[in-house]
Amino acid sequence: MNTNWVKVFIAAFFEVFWVIGLKHADDFWTWTGTIISIIISFYLMIMAGRKLPVGTVYAVFVGLGTAGTVFSDILFFDEPFKIEKVMLILVLLAGVVGLKLVTKDNEQEGAES
Fold first, then answer.
1. What is the pTM assigned to this prediction?
2. Residue 86 domain flag
């Protein structure tokens, strides 16, 4: 896995924080954390999209962010656990992994621009 895919995974990680922040932020510090998470998340996604296919980057970003948000809601915010929801998230993640596996990286060694 190259550094651009790592950027996508980190961006998705921060996506979970800003999505949760949009719902639960209620003071200056939580809104500040939410805004910082948005900036980091989109910056990393945009940087990865410069070297990788944008459609695949976006699909992986959104899929992982969605799964992370659903699991965070279940674990931390008392969202009811439903096996149907978990199964559908697993189908979503299988699609994301499939996209990652069939996408060729266009990055060449030493081709930084």
1. 0.80
2. yes
Which residues, other chains included, contact 75 with Cβ-Cβ below 8 Å and sequence gap of 6+? none
Domain annotation covers residue 88: yes
HSE on the CB side for 71, CA within 13 Å?
Answer: 14
For 101, the token pair is: 């596996």
Q: Which amino acid is at 82?
A: K
Tell whether 109 is covered by a domain.
Answer: no
Q: Please write the tens of the pLDDT for every residue from 4-17.
A: 999 999 999 999 99
Q: How many domains does the chain have?
A: 1
Structural domain that includes position 64: 3-102
